[in-house]
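Researcher: We're teaching a course module on how sequence relates to structure. For the next exercise, students receive a sequence and then see the predicted structure as tokens, so they can try to spot secondary structure elements on their own. Here is the exercise chain.
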Amino acid sequence: MGAEPILTWLDRLLASMTLLDGFLSVLALAVLTAIVLVSADWRLTVAGLAGQSVILAGLATRYLPLEWAFARMIVGLLIAIMWLLSAWTSGWGRRPVRWLRWRWPLLSTRGLLRLVMVILVAILLLSLRLRLPLPGLDGDLVFLSTWLIAMGLLTLALSEEPLTGGMGLIWWIEAFQLYYPALERDAMIEGTMGIVKLLVGLACAYLITVEGLRLDISPGEEW
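Model: And here is the predicted structure for the students to work with:
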């Protein structure tokens, strides 16, 4: 009897995820991805990863069972928690790293450069209607997959920290996860991609901790 309220709550939670499947969710995810890339605050990056995990789980319900989509959301939230704890315990919250420091003109120039590049990529994708050849996938998800791959490549090209580099890798994995369920539902592939995403999150969390501890060794160093 005690398990029934929990099961009922889970059923309502899983059903509410289907409300995130729509054009507004695609637009919100694209905007959130751009904000994460342009921002120079690790807190926004971690919060953006958590928000993207929720939205992507809702979009995944278009082709996947609700339980699988919920598992994807849990994996994304776990990675966000790992990155948050690693950044906080290693001192990133008290001493931002390199370009994360709120200082002029370094932040303004880098932020402006990233904003300009995001706008150029958006104009290129929208004006030339560049899309990945993904048969069987809805048009809005094709655009979102293309956007995630482009933003991931741009993030990796501009990244100087494990946190930003990890986001680029996560976006590539999420782009693949958007596509393959339209072809087939394979529990083995779904589980494998979840494990790969967790391993990427763990590796980046370790590198974040090492980077923060390395900076604490020389507190007088200026960037």
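Model: If you want an answer key for the exercise: Residues 187-217 form the longest helix (31 residues). The mean pLDDT is 78.
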